[in-house]
Design goal:
The complex is a heterodimer of chains A (297) and B (47).
Chain A: H1 11-17, H2 19-45, H3 50-53, H4 58-71, H5 73-78, H6 85-98, H7 103-129, H8 131-139, H9 145-149, H10 154-170, E1 175-178, E2 181-184, E3 187-190, H11 198-214, H12 221-251, H13 255-262, H14 265-287, H15 291-295
Antiparallel strand pairs in A: 1-2, 2-3
Helix pairs in contact in A: 4-8, 6-7, 7-8, 10-12, 11-12, 11-14, 12-13, 12-14
Chain B: H1 2-5, H2 9-36
The chains are: A mainly alpha (297), B mainly alpha (47).
């Protein structure tokens, strides 16, 4: 068999052979580039609404989705070009939402348009291939769901306030806990929904999903369940510690330390440590023998 | 419609061109909204 030598990759040749695909990609970038910049700028500078800030995990998730889509490009090209009508409907719906005057609908138009494109150009097989990157984009799309969830976090807020108060009392401080308020030395700390760690829980679950995919842990159901239970437990414990430290700083008049940990880079260090602990957790779970291996003769 | 969704090179090309038309229309409307000041981002967003 004679092997044909592979030609080196050329942008010019690629653009010639895939002119229409390149044009679609360019139009998508022109349409959604400003929106993505708006999101990233809002997440980084906190200039976006507080509900939309809950989706700042998109800073890691959206590039990861783009990377996954890129490495799947050969499989994408190899798929039969059999379109699906629903894809066309989704594409037009996405464009109508994009042109609507409501910010949330414009945001939602991104995952809808991308799903529509996959379905319209490659049918169900295209969506199946790109399902995980599409899921990452969908779950990083800012919307008002955190606003709807926030009222239901009251029991968690009370629990965190109670445990943080108990820990401070163990340290010999004069603490009173009322509902979600912790009183220390005549100073009050409110465990607000945002402080209840809802945002960090969202981020942790999202990062956990990425890790589950990356390490292929999703193939072992028991480990996936253990991992996500571990994520929730870690997130709640870390948030109790965070609120305890914040109340300690505020109650003892250490205002600079409070500001550093509450809205300064101290909070970023806390988030990084929590996400780092997820990597350790997934690594430890990965090292455990799987139940199938245990039961094997 | 089935002809358009089929696997033939004609159908594939037609779908790609239709996609370009739809995206271009959206882009033109969006740019004209921006030029005429009706762009959604022109109004301050609640923070």
């Amino acid at each position: 068999m004679i092997e044909t030598p592979q030609k080196p990759f050329s942008i010019h040749r690629f653009a010639q052979h895939h002119a229409t695909e390149v044009a679609i990609a360019a139009l998508a970038v022109i349409l959604y580039g400003p929106l993505l910049i708006h999101w990233c700028d809002g997440w980084l500078t906190k200039s976006i609404s507080i509900e939309h800030e809950y989706f700042s995990h998109g800073l890691i998730g959206l590039p990861f989705a783009g990377y996954l889509a890129w490495i799947k490009r050969n499989k994408w090209q190899a798929l039969p070009s059999h379109g699906h009508l629903v894809g066309g409907v989704l594409l037009i719906t996405g464009m109508l939402l994009y042109l609507s005057p409501m910010v949330d609908l414009i945001n939602l138009s991104l995952p809808i348009t991308l799903t529509g494109l996959c379905l319209w150009l490659k049918g169900l097989k295209g969506v199946k291939l790109m399902v995980f990157p599409l899921l990452l984009v969908f779950l990083a799309t800012p919307n008002e769901i955190p606003y709807l969830i926030a009222p239901y976090t009251l029991p968690l807020q009370k629990f965190i306030a109670g445990v943080a108060g108990f820990l401070l009392w163990q340290m010999g401080m004069d603490v009173t806990v009322e509902q979600i308020y912790i009183y220390v030395n005549d100073r009050i700390v409110e465990v607000a929904p945002y402080c209840a760690g809802l945002k960090m829980l969202f981020t942790s679950l999202y990062a956990g999903m990425m890790l589950t995919y990356w390490t292929e842990l999703w193939k072992q159901r028991e480990k996936v369940v253990a991992f996500f239970v571990g994520i929730i437990a870690l997130s709640v414990i870390a948030n109790i510690m965070r609120n305890t430290v914040l109340t300690f700083f505020h109650g003892t008049g250490r205002d600079a330390a409070f500001a550093w940990f509450h809205e300064g880079w101290g909070g970023d260090v806390y988030s990084a440590l929590l996400l780092g602990s997820l990597i350790i957790l997934v690594h430890q779970l990965d090292r455990l023998p799987s139940p199938q291996q245990d039961s094997a003769p | 419609m089935n002809k358009l969704l089929a696997e033939s090179p004609w159908a594939r090309r037609s779908r790609l061109l239709a996609t370009i038309v739809v995206l271009t229309i959206a882009m033109v409307i969006s740019v004209s909204n921006y030029v005429t000041g009706n762009w959604v981002w022109a109004t301050p967003q609640p923070s």
